Amino acid sequence: MMSSSLLWAVDVYGRVYSLSTAGGRWERSKDKVLELKRVTAVKQCCWGIGCDSQLYLNVNPSDVAIRYQEETYENQRWNPLDGFTDSMLPTDRWPWTDEAGLNPQPLHSFQLPSESWEWEGDWFVHDESCGRPSTNTGGWEYAVDFPASFSKDKKWNSCVRRRRWLRNRRYKALGLWSKIPLDRGWPPPQPFTDISCGGHLMGNSSKKHLYLWAVSQQGKVWFRSGIQHLRPEGCRWEEVAVPGEVAQMSCGPGDLLWTVLWDGQLLVRTGVSCEQPKGSSWTVVEPPKKNMGAALVSVGVYVVWAVTKDNKVWFRRGVNSHNPCGSRWINISGEMVSVSVGPNDQVWGIGSEDRTIYFRQGVTASQVTGTGWIPVHAQWDSSRPAEGHPSHDYRGRMTDSSQGSVLGLEESLGGPDCPIPKATIPKITSDSFISALVSDRECTIRPVGSKPLPTVPAEDQDQAQDQDQDQEADGGDEEVLSSLSEIPSKATGVDPWSNVDLEEEAKGKPPAGPGEAAAQRASVATYSLELPEVEERPPWAWVSGGGCVFTSDSRIGWLESSEDKTSSLSLAITPAHASAEKKKEASEEQIFEKSVSVTKGRLRWWRDWQPHQWEDVGIALEQARTERGRREDILYLYYKHNDEKKFLCTPMSDVTALVPKIRESLYCFAIYTSERTRQRWPLLLSTLTQQDLQQWLSLLGESCCHSKGIVGKPSEQALWAVTSKGDIMVHEPAPSLEAPTSSPACDHMFWYQVPGHLHTVECNSLGVVWGIGYDGTAWVYTGHRGGSVEGSGDHQRPLADVRSIFIYENQRWNPLAGYTDKGLPMDRHMWSDASGLRECTKASTKPPSPQWTWETDWAVDHSAPEGSDKEGWQYAADFTAAYTGNKTLKDFVRRRRWIRKCRIQLTGPWEEVPPIPLSDITILPCLAKSSMEQVPLWAISERGDILCRLGVTRDNPAGSSWLHVGTDQPFCSISIGGGHQVWAIARDNSVFYRGSVSAQNPAGDCWYHIPSPPKQNLKQLSVGRTSVYAVDENGNLWYRHGVTPSYPQGTVWELISNNVSKVTVGPLDQVWIIAEKVPGCPSESPGTVCHRVGVQPMQPKGQSWDFGIGGGWMYLSVRGNALEAQRAPARSPQPPRAQRQVNGNIIAC
């Protein structure tokens, strides 16, 4: 159970009140004469500035008394005549000093710091041997000389001795306001206008200190140090230089310190730490509004709130001990004259209209701005609410008939057994009564639980007065008033009177019995509106929540909803008030439109510079919802470099991709921005568990999509890609992506992840998306993004994939032992990967990521492409030469491949298409507005058979059945383009064209052989509307000339570029590739997305390459993007784009 704490407040008359979290009443300070202007509090104490500009302190009562022990040492030296005396040598210390002997401290020099202290007893000698005042030994310690070590034993060479004297003093002013005296020996500071205490949560040390900051009338800043539990008043004041005149300042519980200058500018103190509590320098922060300076600032642990001079409330985003200045301001609905932030970042405020204390509801560690303002419903005593008017009894008292007022005969009678209805509020119609209520206080009086009343326009007030005058003109009222005037006044004064709706009052109080009811029918009832002399709620001038400690789930009685509480009086008696109240409620509903939430965590960050290692860092995602529902999310990373706090920040709107990575069997992911994409330098983070990785990827991915306005499933025009890890990435293209000129750069493209694991993915503009897993299983996309966004859990299906991991056992021949694992010094590792550059043993080889689990054990692989003998060995003259399955006399090395399969289990928006395993797939790329009954889809099975899928439509993307297309050899790559052009590559690298393919004849008739480029073996191709591109085994990209509707086979191949692993051609003949060996990308994870710029109908080969995201991208499909750029009128030529490629060779990024 959390201990109680106090909320402090000051009214406009300087009276100080405190409100306990364990109670429900405002308690006024015991010192009735004391008047304060401002207070600042922590849980242990409260500081205040009096109207005399002096400083006052109130230490909260505690079960443990505050005692401070003064000490001094008595020193003596031995001489042959007198023995031990206080006669010292000229070089000795004083007879009475501190322990070090550097400062004289005679007993009479000790004085009480202030009147708040009192001595407990006299001085006594402390005997350290027994831990209590000395009795027999006298407490002396002996040594050869004063700088030497002292001991209890007296020896023959003990020439000096000392003993410790102690005296205790106790702080007696607990729960009382005491004046802080001037520091002795120090120049007095100037009169103060503002104070703020904090810093008690700074650092991780168990020994906490409290620091007090103050602002003088001349705008100077003062710092008070030495405030501890045993020294609540502190030691002395020190002036801190500041570039300007300070008007107000706020110190948080941690290391945050903000100030407001008289011109409305804000200053932030940087370099604040436990070792340097005063900080090192000031940094200027612009106010929230340029034409409206700041009036007040309040600081918490991780938050900063401010109020501008027009009473608008603002929240500072991105504030942290690593980034004390924050990033930007966001406006919070509501108007306050002041705000105060508590130790758990809870927020209090004083309304600008009604001067009521409000609490910011819904503030948590993640929802830092809360949800709305609610008034504090506390009481002055056990029965009277604080945030309303005094609970006077305005109900009329029934009197006997001799008092002369008349009740209507139409009222129904009630018997003694009738239930007593609830009291109702009489309708007040007299302006004089309201004037009497508010004559002594210039504040608005509200009922408990009601919202603050707005100011009534003058024209509405005039209308209300006219209505009241019309009611008072009724002649019946004159008789009632004349009867009431005969009633004698009380001794305390004349009772104020008001016209009361008697019909409503009669409903509120039934007669006591038949006799009294009969008297009512023919008698007079008088309603006494006596006002007892009780104090009204004062308008608040200042509030301090720094000492009010509770959590978001704590139940505080005076912060709970008060809808069930009723008030005995409402001043909203005119239509003008009701109209203004509705406007006020409408404006208060806007509070929920702007908010900031923060998600924090601890991750590991790979530092790419010295010392090149993983480091524990703090990470925070700040999600802000601004006006019109826009999202402005920022990701912060906090770290230390050379013991200096630093941070990195990235707006989520600048993030271009969140990509899971394979890194040392860790749960890693990379964050790309456009700048980091150009530099090939992503931000690499890792988590402790796979669950944490998925949660952060989901959270960050959702934030990116919302920041960029991407909601729902991928569009039919989306670009699809697969990374080397098997993750599926999607990009939503803009219409200008394929513009002939001024197309957006590829490094600005945003990619987001779709759950699943694939090796190949293909799409088209009708929304048909197919994929192939590593095990050859075909999958069709079910039409949803997946993940946690948009509640897509119902669209998830189980998804599994199996992948083979290969390692190589290498041996070298020698004349003595034959083939052994003893190689030459320059040879590769005897167990390695295919390249031989990395050592891979059976024990050290792990699955691709922790998501994978081994499914089989290691076994010799007899299905190597180059062939092998019966034991799986392949032979070559050297490790870098070509391998064969047959041994010759010149083969001095051999290797064999080992295989082990692993499995991954996921869920995603994919449906399996059984039963034939596939190796390649292609879908007809069509224009965006195309309509066809069936979508042509071709595939190649793992055995090399060519298949055509029937029944594929927009509504049934999985199709119905496979149609086998006859071939005389196995194939490895296939692509279908505009006009149902089907091109394919056989495993012997020969190229074929399928003739007579149409919607009526989906399988075509026959194959036409197409010559390959000279001395080159093609391995993959892609066909667009009129263009055909292919990639050979050496990574060269080729373009087929002369492809026309009348001669679709084309004429000749032309080399376009090198270092290409995959090519994809879209429905607009746009060309994209996966490039290899791009400068800046790591060699162990090649693969960069590149776009061919300048492709036009008259220039289908384009002009140059534009480089996008890279490092581990394996497959790309743009065959769904049929968005054509809007044609614009001719304009002046644009400046040329930066040349990044020489036609034919990729040279830079």
From TrEMBL:
Organism superkingdom: Eukaryota
All copies of domain Peroxin/Ferlin, residue ranges: 65-126, 139-172, 800-861, 872-905
Annotated Acidic residues bias: 459-480
This protein's UniProt keywords: Repeat
Basic and acidic residues bias (residue ranges): 384-398
Any Gene Ontology CC annotation: bounding membrane of organelle
Compositionally biased region (Low complexity): 401-415
SMART domains referenced in this protein's UniProt entry, alphabetically: DysFC (SM00694), DysFN (SM00693), TECPR (SM00706)
Region described as Disordered: spans on this chain: 379-425, 445-497
Family annotation (PANTHER family): DYSFERLIN-RELATED, TECTONIN BETA-PROPELLER REPEAT-CONTAINING 1B
Recorded family membership: Belongs to the TECPR1 family.
Name of this chain's protein: Tectonin beta-propeller repeat-containing protein 1 isoform X2
